[in-house]
Design a protein that fits this description.
About 30% of the residues lie in helices and about 25% in strands. By secondary structure, it is α/β, with parallel strands linked by helices. It has a five-stranded mixed β-barrel with strand order 6-9-7-8-10. A four-stranded mixed β-sheet has the order 12-14-16-17. It has a two-stranded antiparallel ribbon with strand order 5-11. The longest helix has 17 residues.
Amino acid sequence: MTDAHAFVLAGGRGTRFWPLSRRAKPKQLLDFTGEGPLLALTLERIRPVIPPERQWIITGEDLVDAVRAVAPSLPAEQIIGEPVGRNTAPAVALAAALLESQATESPFVVLPSDHLITPADTFQEDLRTALDVVAASPLLLTFGIEPSRPETGYGYIEAGDGMLPGTEGAVRPVAAFVEKPDRETAARYVATGRHFWNSGMFAWRSDVLLGALREVEPEMVRLAESVAAAGTEGRRLALEEAYGRMPAVSVDYALMEKARNVVVLPARFSWNDVGHWLAMRDLWTKDSAGNAVRGDVLAVESRDNIVFGEDRLTALLGVSDLVIVQTEDVTLVCAADRAQELRAVLDELNRRGDERYL
């Protein structure tokens, strides 16, 4: 697939990785593995299939300069700053409209900027398969991840019966998108073999995507097309005007749950959405007591903790199942089973009007 494009969504704020992730340097710009920022790893992973001249990034307007520093090989006009976050549907509509304005009906993929995927060559093979499928057929394709556990923090995709004709058995029709389940329901999903984690990765042609969106969100498409028509010089003002009227809605809810031509490609690669601090148990080396650590950490009679320290020793004695994060100006101590609730801390800081730590 020689003319495919990729749009990487990099507007998230990574609040569940506070206090390391901040407004000015959110999760996608951080290095959790020692191999580089998550955004840089994403761009490098797709490079053998889609080179930098056809890579685009949609991020927050206030993050454009920081993103350019991470992605210097991309053309400057292909790093687009949203004046305000409106979830994924407006970004996807804008992506398709920009390609259509270039008189191309190229297939393109939409990828989050902050996931870790291995091995890269298997991902690239699946990426090529997805692009070939949507280039040949008017389909909306999503990548499904085979569940390894009854996870309650993800949405699920239920695959329909059989394989889709004309796709060499690569994809399956989608029967339903399912919201985050309780544990009993998640265990049932895993047992069926018909359910996949919703990865938030998609592939389609620009004309197919816009046609489907026009049926459910015609005003969103019109606003996206007004931005594309403004050209590079007028884009900033057009974005402000359009995003002032855009709804805040995910592409799953706005389109994928309603469309009839949706298919799922079961991924063959390993996937980690790096969703919160507990993900570090899979990414960082653990000591004999199960402590996952980065930095200078001394753990005595302490088990199953996640510890990040900057520029100073973090010493633990007789504690377990904690998340401890030391930055230059903040120390976080959190029960591991509440690591997904850090938004409550940020809400309290906002309530106090204290922006120093946001």
